[in-house]
Amino acid sequence: MLSRRRHRHKRNLSLGAPPTTGSTGASSAEAASPAPSSSPLSTLSLDRKTFLRQKQSKQLQASDKTWVRSDLRRGSGAGDHTDTHILIKPPSKCSSSSQARPLTSQASVQPEQEVPGGSRGWLEPINTSPMPALYIQLHGGAVRRLGDDERPLQILNEYLTNLGFEDPWRVQEEGMNPEIGCLIRFYFGKPRSVGGSERVQLSGVFNVRKGKLALPVNRWSKRQVTLSGTCLIVSSVKHAHTGKMHILPLIGGKVEEVRRHSHCLAFSSAGPQSQTYYISYDSYTEYLRWQRTASKIASQRVNSVDLSCCSLEELPAQLFYSQDLTHLNLKNNFMSPHKGVPALTSVYKSLIMSLSLSNNALSEFPLALCDITSLTELNLSGNHLSSVPAEVGAMHNLQTLLLDGNLLSSLPVELGSLEGLTYLGLSFNCFSCVPPVLEKLGGMERLCLAGNKLSVLDLAGLQWLSARYIDLRLNQLQKATVADVEQLAHIVHLDLRDTGLDELDVSSLCKLELLRCDRNTLALLRVCGHALKSLHAAHNKLKQLEVHPVPENLTVLDLSWNKLGCVPDWVWESSRLEVLDISHNCVTELPVRLLSSGSLRKLLAGWNNVCQLDERLEQSQLEVLDLQHNHLTELPHNLFIKAQSLRYLNVSANKLENLPAASLSEDAFSSLQELYVTNNSLTDKCISLLTGHGHLRVLHLAYNQLQTFTASKLARLEQLEELDLSGNRLKAVPTTILNCQRLHTLSAHSNCISAFPEVLQLPEIKCVDLSCNELTEVTLPEILPSKLQELDLTGNPRLSLDHKSLEHLKVDPSPSAPCVSESQGVPAVWSHGYTEASGVKNKLCVAALALDSFCGIHEALYGVFDGDRNVEVPYLLQCTMGDVLAEELHRGQRQEDYIINTFLTMQRKLGTAGQRMGGSAALCHIRHDPVASSEHGGCFTLKAANVGRCQAVLCRDGKAMQLSHIHTVKDEAEYQRVRQHNAIITEDNKVSGVTDSTRIMGYSFLCPSVTPHPHVSTVALTPQDEFFLLGSRRLWDMLSPSEAVEAVRNLPDALAAAKKLVTLAQSYGCSDSLSAVVVKLSITEECCCFCEPPPPPPSPGPATQPGLHPYSGSSDGSVPLPQPPPTSSATVSELSSEFSTSEMSSEVGSTASSEEPLTQAEPPTSHLNLPGRAGTHRPACRGSTFHRQFSGALSDNGLDSEDEEPIAGVFSNGSRVEVEADVHCLLRHNCAQSQQSTDSPPPVTPQSESLPLAFPSPSASPVPPSSPYLGGEARSGTLGRKARGNGSVACQGRNQDLIEEAADAPVKKQGGYFNAPAQPDPDDQLIIPPELEEEVRQIIQQQQQQLQTHSQQAHNYQNPADYFLTPL
């Protein structure tokens, strides 16, 4: 029957095609061929010619691709209407007329879809009317039926073009990629989503019993049970649709578990005449599904049904049995204005009160809605309405009408008859003036006209409106006219954000209570203060602010990011002011009356020019005081005595040398709980003054001049939870820290500490950072603290860990690859350091990518990724983006848009994780460019790209040079592009309330309003370039580019510099995840010697063995040239020239590849040999190799869970212990010999003869042959991870040269959108016992000798090289 059914579908499709010349024979021949049989429940893939034949391969064959690429029009939607281009078959199998076959409405019969027993839902009635059979699904969301004139490939190509791809050839290639299915997917027949069908209704055949279980007369019977809307429907199995039905309303009722029967629920209705039905389920899964859904319905206070995002075109028939339904949500569907909406009037004409039809792609106002007289709230936002019918005047009970995000330019006169209308939403339409009909709406209180085309703020025109709350933001207002005071007494709330006004005078609004005029260019503002309660004027250019009279009711005043030179006098005269924000201004003095105000609770005055606070401070009620980034040299001596309510004080980035006393006596304690004095000039004298703050929980003393911390003073801070002593000159942490039993975070990096403190004995300790110190040994307790999550010991060059400590910390003692800076006698051209810190919710939502040797020894790649509140997206970007960039480079070295295509390709690489989540990204690629050396004087080119709020900054001659740009709706071009695609911008300037960046990775459900197209800048590196920085979004919120450059310019160690940036940001107020990468540059003229034009290539000589040498050698014998790190190793990252490599374990960013690892006889290297230096291999010495390793994986699925109690300042990332350590491995008997080889060149052997280092000619190969990403199987792999079949860590989609026959839509996994690949268990690592170490060493040496002998024999039998080297 399945074959006959498919044969019938083929015949219908063939008959439905328009008669064209020469197409009859081909169509008949193909219609006669039977389709292969398949299960009706599986998703069948059909080619685009017949939509029915199952295709075995998941990609086009080579002949198919050749046929498509031979003519761009064959796969493009561009062209006339006679060429539909939806069929991709070679000419031998498809006649030319098949391309011209449009999608007509003759495909009338839908494929029959069987549904098994249980709760998979009711069968939708077969629609026999002429309807197209193709459906489209974007970003895994709702499924829409294609119209008669819509063409799949045209839609696909337009989607990819809007995404950012410009090259037509690349659009063709992306369209055929199997991973594109996570972005756009086509179906033949409507797919069924299990989650969506459950929300519409649950149905199945179960054992049902009515009444009490104790009565013997009631028996169990098989019944058809349906849970739809707000009712439980029980009917006969044979006559489910025609027989008698028992309807049980559940609103206000009960859903209880029956313990005497397994998998049984009792459903009871509300009211005195309640009835009870007992339903026994077949499985525990069914039981839980019904219990969860029914409990939500029963717990509702309002009779509402939520059917949003269910791909509905018509209302389900069973919904009409819910006779008590009053609120219906049909948002994000595709309801038909002629079929779906009119069905509401037949049942709910006098019942339904609230109806939402937003984002339903309605092109006209459904007239049937005007007949529902009971409606009080109607939402039609986000559609394509161009007019409102006059019949809307019959909806007399309407109180709220939302028409935002449409194409309206006028309103009917009949709208004025709605006397009960109180809220009218007209935002983001096409109104050029206030509609005159609004003057007739006497009861209207709230009017929203944001995002229209208003050019003049006519205050005189507002006097005829009765609205009290007016929203005019995001209109390009050129001026504001003044009106009579008496006529505007009704306006109490005015929103003028992002309107572009230069001056504003609203003093005529005498009853104004709230004014928002942020993000303009205001230099003058006049406001009436009679009733003013809240004023927000941040991000302007205010130099003068006039408020008259003095606002007695003002409680909140935000004047940050302006150009005020002083605090206006009327401010400290406001007797009820509680919150004042004047940060980021030019204020030089804070009046003493302001600090002594009896009402002021919160004062933010950071980033000003305040040099001194008045000593005549009187009693103050301040609870929060922020004075960071000023020029204070001292604080008032009685600050803590007079401000007894002060709980938070931040005076970081000043010039303080001491602190005031906490109280008058030693026995009295202040109320201070958080103290931030980072980046000052405090000495040891201030330590004794801290003991008076007995309630102190958070103390930041980083980057001062402390040399000792008195043990007795620290012992008195028993309430301390977070302590930061980084960047000082401390030699030890006092042992009295054990008195701080609540301490969970200790940060003391960048000091001179030589002894490991006893901090691991604290019961609450979670994070310990002792990096960049002088530790020599670590003493660990027998049992590590149960809450310990991070132990950072990086940057301690003299640290030695024995086998017991390594095993205890689960740190792998195997040496990693030598890095660029470790090369014997070779100065590093670049070296890096990076750090990451989690936020207060213990979630590490950032990731860093650092490869000093990328695609060859003369390239590097660095990146920072920020997921805001999710973990999956930055983790995927970290693991995959390097591979994608390498693949783009492999397409051609001279391709200028390779880094743009990297970002665009990553959009599909994110898979299902990028559909609803997103993240910012900044990427910097250093590349050898001989052409640039002649034009700009440098041979290395730095190409930086970013989306979102991650940024890169270059330090050139000590000045900050920004390499990034943040795309927001403040840019006129970006705003117009977002509005072109009918997106809504919320009050916080976020697109659809999701992200404030218009270009960002992920969030594909917002495409094309939000795209991953990056900003790209290219800079030729010169000797004047000192370093560059990459930082996550919150880092740049706290630090300006110039301040960040100045803070780390004098630090020689890149790791210490990155640590300092993160510490400063945390002390300045950041509580979210942070990441920073610092790359030190040493660009000299000698680095560019190999950029001279190469001589003619010599004759091909014997090549080196591919497994041993990545470059071919010369005929005179050579030393093995440097090899890149293999993909089987973890991500290699160099910290600085002093330190060695830093390796991420498989649990953080990489898993083992399928490649064979290199043997220890040939340690992989990635260093740069410069002219005059002999390039030699250096044996891997355990005494001089360090590793940065993480033994903890990311802890959660990235959802914004509230399961954990947030703890401020914890830098760890989850539930498992994370250890970061530069491990100084155990010395062995030949360490001295290895050390000697570091100081002097080794003796010349056939394996290590001297040879000048050479680079391949740019024309020889698209990428250097040493690329770890493009060799063999690694081309499709991910960075340090085991590759999937499609070369991605994301879920593999279906090939888009196939149209799928619908059965079940792809189901999103529970608990998150991305499940990481299987990770190796760190407990399975091999640890060699000390007594067997000598025996194992001998075995390894024998293997090394055998490999050396084998390599010498193979050296004489090498294949000719396919590329040539250019000697220096």
UniProtKB/TrEMBL annotation:
Skewed-composition ranges (Basic residues): 1-12
GO molecular function: metal ion binding
Region span, Disordered: 1-124, 1096-1214, 1232-1304, 1345-1368
Keywords: Leucine-rich repeat, Metal-binding, Repeat
Ranges of compositional bias, category Low complexity: 14-45, 1133-1147, 1248-1258
UniProt biased composition (Polar residues): 93-111, 1148-1168
Keyword Zinc belongs to the record: no
Cross-referenced Gene3D superfamilies: PPM-type phosphatase domain, Ribonuclease Inhibitor
Domain PPM-type phosphatase: 831-1081
Sequence ranges of Basic and acidic residues compositional bias: 66-86
Membrane-spanning ranges: none
Pfam families: LRR_1, LRR_6, LRR_8, PP2C, RA_3
Domain of life according to the entry: Eukaryota
UniProt GO cellular component terms: cytoplasm
Protein's name according to its UniProt entry: PH domain and leucine rich repeat protein phosphatase 1
Species annotation: Neolamprologus brichardi (Fairy cichlid)
